[in-house]
Amino acid sequence: MMKYLVSLCLLAVFFMTACSSLKKAESLYVKGQYEPAIEQLKKTKAIDGKKAVLRNFYLAQSYRKSNRLHEALPYYEKIYSKDIPKLIDPDDHPDDPIFYYALALKNAGKYEEAKRQFESYVRKGKKVEYVKRAQTEIANIERLQRLMKEKSYYEIENCSGLNSPAAEFSVLPLASRELLVSAARKKNIYAANGQPFTGLYKVVLTDTCQGEYQVFSPNLFTEGINEATATLSPDGKTLIFARGNPQQKKNAKGQKNVKLFISEKVNGEWTTPRLLEGVSSNDEERYYGKQLPDSKPQAYAWDSSPAFSPDGERLYFASTREYDDFGNRNLGGSDLFYAVRLPDGSWGKVRHLGDEINTPGNEMFPMVSADGKLYFASDGQPGFGQLDVFVATRSKGKITVRNLGTPINSPYDDFGMVFDTDTTGYFSSNRPEGKGSDDIYRFIDRTPKTKIVRYYLAIRTLGVELNGTEIPLPNTRLRLLDKNEQLIRQMYTNSKGWTDTLPIPENAEFIVLADQLESKKQYLTAREFFTMAGRKIPQELLEKPETDTVLVFEVRLKAFEINKTRFVYNILYDYNKWNIRPDAAAVLDRIVTFLRDNPDVTVELRSHTDSRGTYADNEILAQNRAQAAVDYIVSKGIDRERLKPSGYGEREPRVIDADLAARYPFLKEGDVLNDEFIYSFPDEETRELLHQLNRRTEIIITGVINVRQ
């Protein structure tokens, strides 16, 4: 019995100790001191039930909020399907474990499982911002397969001589062989992540990836506070950087207080930094950005990663502010903003960079290159996991955003792209193969100067029914012919009327003959000319060094009906004659081509005259012209048995169809060009035109020799 009581007492003491550790961890967690919170939480292993859920929740959240999402994954996995007993931090949400579990899966490269979790959250999630982000992530994961196949011309190396187990990031090239680097090397420890506070350091290079660290300027270096991500004006006289809070995520008023500060170089020394007024808010402001009806008084923001434009007239930066100064709303997390320098040297109103760049995720670390391209990091654009590096270009008013791909990007945080020459530079990453935390990497861009485009052609065949309806035509034979009518290639469309993609040269030209051999319906062979002229992509519009593009070419086969389907040709003859002139021969050659393309049809050639002259003379003239046309066609190798010449004289005036009505506004569809109609027009010019329309040759399909099956 005594043993039992002792065991019970020990168990109670152990339980009370675990609860005490959990309460301490909660207190540290709510202050944003995540590393000490993690240490406390790891002491509370022997608990179960709701307290175990809380322990794993705080561990997952602490790792995530200190930018260690990969370490948060196993804890989110334990709790994503459980209810959180209580929330003590107003920044937390009951859906955090579900949403961030999916995000952690993506970060770990488990894309299919991540997609399933995001899809589940879209159906069941309760936080609108997370639902929108999940929808974006689903689309991004679907694009990853294509992104992974893209060829990269970047080569990278870890700058081991510049890195340590702590963080080194945000490189800024200075004078020759000098860098300004943000590094966690101060004496005091930042409780949020257990690393030293960050400061601004100058590195004198002994090689591209080797050098000695020294404090950049004593006036810009304060112990017990984070200082990082500096940008320098083109003249080297103005430096803007981010300065953060000391040990808590918010100050005593509950306001987030990472701000942008400015310092000028005077007599060779940097002045004491001051708040960048007009861009960063001070702690006394009630609203951040333009005050709108739904503005929240507590909407203070983090401002960080500033970047001058190459001319120094714009300042880009990242911010979590709710609105810009024009009322444009933040899309979620950290977005990119900019301000324009005014003539007096101050900065104008802050403007949101728009939804072509910003997403419901986080955008930060902007940099504008000498050629005007915007490089930035984002975890909301289509990427491999956490932050990826992207480049945005503008052409003809359109902004295109492109992921730089591997090896620049990885499932981890990749950011801070900067050039020191046209093709070389630095970026930062916390990928596991580094020395630890954020490391500096060197890159070389070996992209070919001349960009390559590989063109492919997909042909689609459509059947045009008698009523004008278009339907896909499967199993259609396609013959590609050169200019001498020699066969280049033969292929067939699939069950949906499409061919496989065909690689073609950028100067390709050929004839496409399409005939539908396996349909119960009857379609005429289609002949179309394909040329690459006007289809090539201009070099200046190409974003990638190599581009594959598929062109679609549609071929329409027309259905026909025996004794009803007709085609009209304007064959010109000398007055009262029927000899074939050169211009008439050119038109008849088109009929020859039609008959060669459709060797199984028989036709009647109907020759029509106008109403001038006697009725009998017009009958004879029309018959002679029809016969002359047939004789010419036979001379080109067409079997006479397929041809019937018929002279119709003036007995069938032309009926205006939709095409003619569109060409001549004074005519309407259905008008009959008889004498009464023609002579209702007072002017000779119009009457002559209508007589010309009556003078025509029509081809009527009269039969099929071998009916197509």
TrEMBL record:
Thylakoid among keywords: no
Listed name of the protein: Outer membrane protein OmpA-like peptidoglycan-associated protein
Keywords, alphabetical: Cell outer membrane, Membrane, Signal
Signal peptide (residue range): 1-25
Record's subcellular location: Cell outer membrane
Upper classification of the organism: Bacteria, Pseudomonadati, Bacteroidota, Cytophagia, Cytophagales
Classification via Pfam families: OmpA (PF00691), PD40 (PF07676)
GO cellular component: a single term: cell outer membrane
Domain of life of the native organism: Bacteria
Alphabetized InterPro entries for the sequence: 6-blade_b-propeller_TolB-like, Bact_OuterMem_StrucFunc, OMP_bac, OmpA-like, OmpA-like_sf, TPR-like_helical_dom_sf, WD40
Domain OmpA-like: 558-705
